[in-house]
C-alpha cells in the first residue's frame, strides 16, 4: 500500500493526482461528446425519479367519474302504488322532518343495531335495522341458519329461498323492519378475505341467483338490504384510521368499468331485479372515492343503470361527508350522522347548497320502501329486541317449528365431499369409532353473559384483538380456529343459535342405535388411537370473521393432528368446518386419509347434518363454490389483502380484471387441488345428449341503449324498456341448453349439473384472457338407473358483455363455447352456438 489506509469513514478521492489531470485534458479535447454525456449522467437520477413518479402517479391515477344529478325514485314497475302513498306523506312533511328520516337516531329502547328517524305527525315510526343475511344476530329466541357460503355450496336456489323466507319471518316477529342482508360483496377476490363466508360464492352468477332468491324470501316479511355496494373485497384498512395523528384512508378498490359490470355489479343487478328495497354502500373507496359518496356507483350504476327504486343506507359509520354524500345518492346515514344531524340538510336546502328535490327524493325513497314491503303493518319497532338481554325482558320466541326440516336440509346440503377412497363413507354400522379434534364437541360455555355482550363473534378474542376491533386498527394475531364446533363465522354475519348440535352428540346417538363403541380425545394433537377402530373421525375448523382478513388458509396445528391420527389409523375421515377456502395439501395424498368433507358453516344443526352424511342417510350433495389450490402461492396477488405500506391513501389495483377465483386459475393454467363446482356423491353420473337451442342475435353497433345517462335526471321514467334491475330485455330468455344425466350408481343421489360458456369478445387479451364462466346450474335428485333432463335457461344478460365505449350490454357476435358437466374442469359435454 503506498499511502495510509483509509478509515472506513473517510471518502477516497475520486481519482488520484496524475489520473486527474489526464482526465481533465481528455475532457477538454472531447468536450462536444463529454458535455452532453455528463448532462445525461447528471440527469439520469432525475429521469429515474420522474419515471418512478409517473409509475406511482399511474398507480394513483384511478379516479371515479362524477354522475349528477341523483336519479329520483319514481315508482317503476310494481313500486308505483308505494310511491303514490310516499309522495302523499312526504308532501306533508317539512324539510326538517324529511331531514329527520334520513339518519339514524340513538335508541335505548331496543336492541336494533340501527334505528332511523321518525316523522310521528305523519305516522312514520322510523325503521329498525338489524343483522344479518344469515339469521337474526345477537338476540334470543331465534335460529342459527347456515351461512352464505354454506348455501352457496348447496347450489340449491329453492333452499336459498326457503331459508330467507323463514329467516325473514323471524326478523318480522322481532319487530325488525330491515334485515341487513343478503351479502353478495365481497365476491371473494381475496382467498383470505375475512367476510367471504357471508356471501354465497366466488362467482357473480351463482351469487346473483342465490342472492335474488334470498331477497324474494326475506321480502315476504321485511325489507332486504343488499350489501356491500360495491367492490368491498378486504377487511384490512376497510375504514379510515388515524396513525400517529395522520389519517389513513380506506383502501381504494381500483377497477375498470368492464370488470365492475361483469363481475362486481353483476349480482347486485339480479338482486335489484328481484325487487330489493334497500342497498348498503360499503366502507371501501372505489377508484379513490368513498363508496358512500361515490356518485358513479350510487347515482350512475345503482339508481341509474339498475333503476333502483329503494333507498341507499350507509354501512355503519361509512359516511364521510355531508353534501357530497347526499348529492352522490346516499339516502340514509347510519347509525347516526354528524354530517346530517341538527337539520344540516334542511339548512343546506335553505342556503341553496343542496337541491330541494334531492332531500325530497331521499325521504320519498325511504317512505316508499316502507310501504312497498308492508312495514306500515309491522309490529311495533324492535318489539322483540330487548336492549339488554342480561336484564329481565319479555322473551319473544321468533322461531317457527315449521322451519325445522328446512334448517336441517340447509345444513346437510352445504357439505362437500372431496375425497372418498377404499369405500370409507358412508359408515356401515362400525363396531369401533374413534373421534378426535376440538371441533367435534360444542364449546364449553354457552351462556348469555358471554354470548350477548360480545355478540357471539367476539368469543375467543383476546383483549388486544377486541381493542383492535373497536379502533379499526389491524387486529393482531387473529384466531385461525375456534374451540368447539364452528357453526358460523364472526362479525355481523354471525347468528345466534337456539342450540348447537355437535358432531359428537349426533354420533353418540348413532352409536346407541348401532351398538358402536366410541373412543375420543378432543384435546390432544397427538392422541392415542385404538387399533380396532373401523374409522377415525377428525373434526377441525378454519375460522373467519368480519374486521380482519385471515392469517392463512390452513392451521398448522390442525394439520399436525390429522397427520398424527392418519399415521396410526388406516381409515382417517377428516371433517372441516371451514369459513372459507381451506388448503389440504399437508395430508390429502396420505392413503390413510380416506375421506374428506368440507362442512362449511351449517348453523345450529351442524352435528345432525354431518352425521346423516357420514352414515349415508343423506347423500353428500354440495359442490365447492370456490377454488381450493394446492398451495397458497397459487392464488398469486389474490391470496391476501392489499396493504397500505405506509401510504395514507392505500391503493388496491384489481389488475386481474374479471379473472378472480376459477377464472384466474383457468387464465394462468394453474391446476387446483379441487376446482370450483367440484364435489363427490355416493353415486356416479353419466352426461349425454347436449342440445343447444339459442336464439340470440348480436347487438347491432348502432343500437342505442336506453339507460340513464349522466347529466339528465329521470330519463328512465317514461321508458318502458327499463324496470327493476335496469334494461328489462337483459332478463328475457334467449333459449335453453339441455342435457341428460343418468345415475349409474346404486343409490339415489343429487347431481349439480353445471353450464359454462366461453363468450367470444374482442376485449380478451393475452395477459387477462377471457375464460369460460358459469351461466347455469341445476340440482336434481336422481334415482339409481334413472335419467333426468336438465335445462339451462339463458337470459340475454348471460350471453352479453359490457361494452365500455358504447356504455351498453351487447351480445357479441361469434362462436360461444358450451361446456356442461360436473365442475368447471370436468365437463364431459362440449359444444357451441354461433351468434
Ligand atoms: C358491517 C355491516 C353491518 C353493520 C351493522 C358493519 O360493520 O359492515 O355489514 O350490517 O356493521 O352491524
Portion of residues in beta strands equals 15-25%
- Poorly predicted runs of 5 or more residues: 1-59
Principal-axis shape equals globular
Secondary-structure-derived class: alpha/beta
- Global Rg: 29 Å
Q: Mind describing the biggest β-sheet?
A: 7 strands, mixed
Query: Biggest sheet: strands side by side, in what order?
Result: 1-2-3-4-5-9-12
Residue share in helix: 25-40%
Average predicted confidence as pLDDT: 90
Number of strands: 30
Ligand types: beta-D-glucopyranose
**What gap, in angstroms, lies between the N and C termini?**
83 Å
- What count of helical segments does DSSP give? 19
Protein name: beta-glucosidase
GO biological process, one term: cellulose catabolic process
Family: Belongs to the glycosyl hydrolase 3 family.
GO molecular function: beta-glucosidase activity
Walk me through this protein's architecture.
- It is globular and about 85 Å long.
- It is of the alpha/beta class.
- The N and C termini lie far apart (83 Å).
- 26% of the residues lie in helices and 18% in strands.
- The strands form eight sheets. The chain has a seven-stranded mixed beta sheet with strand order 1-2-3-4-5-9-12. A six-stranded mixed beta sheet has the order 13-18-17-16-14-15, sandwiched between helices.
- The longest helix has 29 residues, at 31-59.
- Helix 13 crosses helix 18 (606-614).
- The structure holds beta-D-glucopyranose.
- The site of beta-D-glucopyranose has 8 residues, from loops.
Amino acid at each position: 500500500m503506498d499511502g495510509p489506509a483509509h478509515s472506513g469513514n473517510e471518502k477516497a478521492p475520486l481519482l488520484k493526482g496524475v489520473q486527474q489531470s489526464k482526465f481533465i485534458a481528455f475532457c477538454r479535447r472531447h468536450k462536444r461528446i463529454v458535455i452532453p454525456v455528463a448532462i445525461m449522467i447528471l440527469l439520469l437520477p432525475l429521469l429515474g425519479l420522474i419515471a418512478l413518479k409517473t409509475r406511482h402517479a399511474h398507480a394513483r391515477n384511478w379516479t371515479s367519474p362524477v354522475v349528477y344529478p341523483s336519479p329520483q325514485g319514481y315508482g317503476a314497475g310494481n313500486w308505483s302504488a308505494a310511491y303514490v302513498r310516499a309522495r302523499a306523506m312526504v308532501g306533508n312533511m317539512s324539510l326538517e322532518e324529511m331531514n329527520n328520516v334520513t339518519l339514524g337516531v340513538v335508541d335505548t329502547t331496543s336492541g336494533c343495531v340501527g334505528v332511523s328517524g321518525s316523522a310521528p305527525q305523519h305516522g312514520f315510526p322510523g325503521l329498525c335495522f338489524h343483522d344479518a343475511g344469515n339469521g337474526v344476530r345477537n338476540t334470543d329466541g331465534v335460529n342459527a341458519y347456515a351461512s352464505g357460503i354454506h348455501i352457496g355450496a348447496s347450489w340449491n336456489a329453492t333452499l336459498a329461498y326457503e331459508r330467507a323466507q323463514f329467516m325473514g319471518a323471524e326478523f318480522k316477529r322481532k319487530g325488525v323492519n330491515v334485515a341487513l342482508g343478503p351479502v353478495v360483496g365481497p365476491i371473494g377476490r381475496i382467498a383470505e378475505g375475512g367476510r367471504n363466508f357471508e356471501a354465497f360464492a366466488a362467482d357473480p352468477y351463482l351469487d346473483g341467483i342465490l342472492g335474488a332468491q334470498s331477497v324474494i324470501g326475506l321480502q315476504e316479511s321485511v325489507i332486504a338490504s343488499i350489501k356491500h355496494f360495491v367492490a368491498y373485497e378486504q377487511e384490512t384498512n376497510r375504514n379510515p384510521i388515524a396513525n400517529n395523528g395522520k389519517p389513513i384512508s380506506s383502501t381504494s378498490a381500483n377497477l375498470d368499468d368492464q370488470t365492475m359490470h361483469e363481475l362486481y355489479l353483476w349480482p347486485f343487478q339480479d338482486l335489484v331485479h328481484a325487487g330489493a328495497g334497500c342497498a348498503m354502500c360499503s366502507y371501501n373507496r372505489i377508484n379513490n372515492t368513498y363508496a358512500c359518496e361515490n356518485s358513479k356507483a350510487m347515482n350512475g350504476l345503482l339508481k341509474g343503470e339498475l333503476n333502483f327504486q329503494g333507498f341507499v343506507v350507509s354501512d355503519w359509520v361509512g359516511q364521510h361527508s355531508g353534501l357530497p354524500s347526499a348529492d352522490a345518492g346516499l339516502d340514509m346515514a347510519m347509525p347516526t350522522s354528524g354530517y346530517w344531524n341538527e337539520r344540516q340538510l334542511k339548512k343546506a336546502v335553505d342556503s341553496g347548497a343542496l337541491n330541494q328535490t334531492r332531500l325530497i327524493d331521499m325521504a320519498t325513497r325511504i317512505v316508499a320502501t316502507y310501504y312497498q314491503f308492508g312495514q306500515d303493518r309491522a309490529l311495533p319497532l324492535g318489539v322483540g329486541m330487548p336492549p339488554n338481554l342480561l336484564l329481565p325482558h319479555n322473551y319473544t320466541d321468533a322461531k317457527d317449528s315449521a322451519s325445522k326440516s328446512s334448517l336441517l336440509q340447509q345444513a346437510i346440503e352445504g357439505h362437500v365431499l372431496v375425497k372418498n377412497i377404499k369405500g370409507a363413507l358412508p359408515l356401515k354400522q362400525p363396531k369401533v369409532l374413534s373421534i378426535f379434534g376440538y371441533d367435534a364437541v360444542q364449546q364449553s360455555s354457552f351462556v348469555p353473559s358471554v354470548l350477548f355482550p360480545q355478540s357471539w363473534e367476539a368469543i375467543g378474542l383476546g383483549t388486544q384483538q377486541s381493542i383492535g376491533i373497536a379502533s379499526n386498527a389491524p387486529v393482531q394475531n387473529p384466531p385461525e380456529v375456534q374451540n368447539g364446533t364452528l357453526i358460523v363465522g364472526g362479525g355481523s354475519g354471525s347468528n345466534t343459535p337456539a342450540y348447537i348440535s355437535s358432531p359428537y352428540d349426533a354420533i353418540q346417538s348413532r352409536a346407541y342405535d348401532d351398538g358402536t363403541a366410541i373412543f375420543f380425545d378432543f384435546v390432544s394433537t397427538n392422541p392415542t388411537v385404538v387399533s380396532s377402530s373401523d374409522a377415525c373421525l377428525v373434526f377441525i375448523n378454519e375460522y373467519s370473521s368480519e374486521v380482519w382478513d385471515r392469517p392463512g388458509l390452513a392451521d398448522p396445528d390442525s394439520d399436525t393432528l390429522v397427520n398424527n391420527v392418519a399415521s396410526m389409523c388406516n381409515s382417517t375421515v377428516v371433517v372441516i368446518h371451514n369459513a372459507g377456502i381451506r388448503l389440504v395439501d399437508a395430508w390429502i395424498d396420505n392413503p390413510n386419509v380416506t375421506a374428506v368433507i368440507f362442512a362449511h358453516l351449517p348453523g345450529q344443526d351442524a352435528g345432525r347434518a354431518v352425521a346423516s352424511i357420514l352414515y349415508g342417510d343423506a347423500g353428500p350433495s354440495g359442490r365447492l363454490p370456490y377454488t381450493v389450490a394446492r398451495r397458497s402461492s397459487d392464488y398469486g396477488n389474490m391470496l391476501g389483502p392489499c396493504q397500505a405500506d405506509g401510504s395514507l391513501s392505500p391503493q388496491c389495483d384489481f389488475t386481474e380484471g374479471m379473472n378472480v377465483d376459477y377464472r384466474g386459475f383457468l387464465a394462468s393454467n394453474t391446476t387446483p387441488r379441487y376446482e370450483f363446482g367440484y364435489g363427490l356423491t355416493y353415486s356416479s353420473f353419466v352426461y349425454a345428449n347436449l342440445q343447444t337451442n339459442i336464439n340470440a342475435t348480436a347487438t347491432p353497433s348502432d343500437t342505442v341503449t336506453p339507460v340513464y345517462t349522466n347529466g339528465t335526471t329521470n330519463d328512465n321514467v317514461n321508458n318502458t324498456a327499463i324496470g327493476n334491475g335496469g334494461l328489462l330485455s337483459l332478463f328475457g330468455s334467449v333459449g335453453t341448453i339441455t342435457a341428460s344425466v343418468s345415475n349409474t350408481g346404486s343409490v339415489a343421489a343429487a347431481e349439480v349439473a353445471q353450464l359454462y360458456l366461453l363468450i367470444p369478445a374482442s376485449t380478451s387479451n393475452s395477459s387477462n384472457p377471457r375464460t369460460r364462466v358459469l351461466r347455469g346450474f341445476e340440482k336434481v335428485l336422481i334415482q339409481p338407473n334413472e335419467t333426468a333432463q336438465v335445462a339451462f335457461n339463458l337470459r340475454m344478460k348471460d350471453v352479453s358483455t359490457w361494452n365500455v365505449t358504447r356504455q351498453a350490454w351487447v351480445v357479441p357476435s361469434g362462436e360461444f363455447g358450451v361446456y356442461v358437466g360436473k365442475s368447471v374442469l370436468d365437463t364431459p359435454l362440449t359444444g357451441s352456438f354461433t351468434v
